[in-house]
Structure formats: C-alpha cells, structure tokens
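Please, why this fold?
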Amino acid sequence: MRTTVVLKDELVERARKLAEEKTLSGLLNRCLADWIARHDRRDLERRLAEEYRAGEAESRRVARDFKGIDREGWPSW
C-alpha cells in the first residue's frame, strides 16, 4: 500500500540508527508489526486475566459448596 505520511525528522533519524532495516519502508513495516503484536498481547493478557478471575470465583464457589462434605468420614482430632 502506498501512502504519504509526515514524520518527525528527529524520530526517523533515531530509529534509523537503531533499526536493522535499511529502508524507511522496512522500518515502518517493522514498527507496525511490533505495534500490532504488542496490542495483540495486551488483548490476550486482558482476556486471560478475565478468565483467571472467573475461574477463581468458580473455585471459591465449589470449595464453599463442598466444605461440609470434605470432612465427612474423617476423624475429628
């Protein structure tokens, strides 16, 4: 895809010094790929945290439901 963008000269120069890519297009493609990967990971981490919290609540509920049964048949010391 061809497009026109306006970039700050100082940012481009700093990025070129750090980048392995030899062209500005390569650098911009790498930046976009990194940005997408970072945001995909954030979404995945957010969803995993939500599932973990849901599972934690379910585990507590099950533990509460079986609290009385857990001690059935055990000697009381």
